[in-house]
Design goal:
By secondary structure, the protein is an alpha+beta fold. It has four helices and six strands, in the order H-H-E-E-H-H-E-E-E-E.
Length: 160
């Protein structure tokens, strides 16, 4: 295995930065990380790869991401009325593909949510498709494969 440690460090920093924005509800800054054509996907089936033609828990383009953020910021969603706090932990960051125009990375993520005094954990494998740009990356696609996506999910008042 030949690893480009500089690229791995940059990707790991970007993933950590994105998670920090979400945990601290800096949604507008999070929106600025995306390309115009980027997709945020939370599939309902762990084995599915044809996201555009199957059921997903989330399949957000730029407009849907902005609407999701607006609901979270303005309390227009039932799930946003009871504010939750999240802390995500990321590990096992791995570069799957790297080129001048695209970097694909996968990591393990555990998102912990505290709402109404109850702690809930959401383990997932997350795949990032990143477009290199001056000084960092832009998100082209983020796929969050929740380990219990086919089971019971509480009302979600955050972005994975």
């Amino acid at each position: 295995m030949n690893t480009n440690t500089q690229l791995l460090t940059q990707v790991t920093e970007f993933i950590g930065y994105e998670g920090d924005l979400l945990d601290h509800k800096n949604y507008q800054e999070w929106l600025s990380l995306w390309t115009d054509s980027g997709l945020y996907i939370v599939p309902a089936d762990l084995d599915e790869t044809d996201y555009l033609n199957t059921l997903n828990l989330a399949l957000d383009d730029a407009d849907m991401r902005r609407m999701r953020v607006a609901r979270l910021e303005n309390g227009e969603s039932v799930s946003a009325r009871s504010v939750s706090y999240t802390v995500r932990m990321v590990s096992r960051v791995r570069i799957l593909e790297a080129g001048e125009d695209l970097v694909i990375a996968r990591c393990a993520m555990t998102l912990n949510e505290l709402r109404h005094g109850k702690l809930v954990t959401y383990p997932a494998n997350v795949e990032y498709t990143l477009k290199p740009k001056s000084g960092g990356f832009e998100l082209q696609q983020k796929v969050v494969k929740l380990l219990h996506s086919d089971g019971f999910l509480r009302t979600v008042s955050f972005i994975f």
